[in-house]
């Protein structure tokens, strides 16, 4: 169930946002400081818990271009996305689950059902069967949550996650069949090299990749991940690393990846993932400043793609 927290809807300028919510000081953009941004803090109920979801929208420049941050521990793009939405229009939806026990931004979404704690990866909830597998295996860490103790409990917990996912679909407007909707998911990674076979480091990798182009110019680990040919061709022509998802993934039920890219392709929804490589390991190619500059350049290209293709 989606609730809007009354009193939290507000309009802020970029200056306020940058001060409040960002890891980095983005190299932006005197002109966007004029812009207003409508911000809504929603909560989505799941089991006994509520998860915050922040929706940033440029109401004066409406657009079907909708950015999404699923992994709250991957913040490199966020200030640049917000600045871009203020300047150029569109909206940005950011999951904001609670911090972990150490006070760190958390990739996973924790919740409780019947007094037991569970969690999920928000990019593994887009296939109902994958949700069940993930909850049953608890394959990442026992510290975050329990394994459901019986089929009946599993069914209840599974329903809670499915309900959360469906509410998020409503927030994103996917079910409104807006012909202008173009969903762009932003991620960071720590890949050390561009290798289309290894971009998705799971058993599903080969099913994902139908074609790819490696750029001489773009840095390793920075790439677009797309689901259709014309978007592939657009980003390829701008000399970026691009990977296209294998369409036949949709017709096999053996690849229970559960990621949003497969769900979007199954719905015929224009979709792109943007990944930027970032690490604080001292490598200058992967520094915060470099990641910011790359993020800004890639987002500019996303707007160009939207204006050209949709
Ligand atoms: Zn991610």
Blueprint (SSEs and pairs):
Layout: E1 2-4, E2 10-12, H1 14-21, E3 37-46, E4 49-57, E5 65-69, H2 78-88, E6 91-96, E7 109-113, E8 116-120, H3 128-137, H4 151-172, E9 182-189, H5 205-208, E10 209-213, E11 223-226, H6 229-237, E12 241-245, H7 260-266, E13 271-277, H8 288-309
Parallel strand pairs: 5-6, 5-9, 9-13, 11-12
Antiparallel strand pairs: 1-3, 2-3, 3-4, 4-6, 7-8, 10-12, 11-13
Helix pairs in contact: 1-2, 2-8, 3-4
This protein binds zinc ion.
Features:
310 residues, alpha/beta, Aminopeptidase, 11-stranded mixed sheet, two-stranded antiparallel sheet, 8 helices, 30% helix, binds zinc ion
Could you explain the architecture of this structure?
This protein has 310 residues and is an alpha/beta fold. It has one domain (2-309): Aminopeptidase. It is 30% helix and 24% strand. The protein contains eight helices and 13 strands. It has helices at 14-21, 78-88, 128-137, 151-172, 205-208, 229-237, 260-266, 288-309, and strands at 2-4, 10-12, 37-46, 49-57, 65-69, 91-96, 109-113, 116-120, 182-189, 209-213, 223-226, 241-245, 271-277. The strands form two sheets. Strands 1, 2, 3, 4, 5, 6, 9, 10, 11, 12 and 13 form an eleven-stranded mixed sheet that branches. A hairpin with a 2-residue loop joins strand 3 (37-46) and strand 4 (49-57). Helix 3 packs across helix 4 (151-172). The protein starts with a strand and ends with a helix. Residues 5-34 and 200-204 have low confidence and may be disordered. Residues 71, 74, 187 line the site of zinc ion.
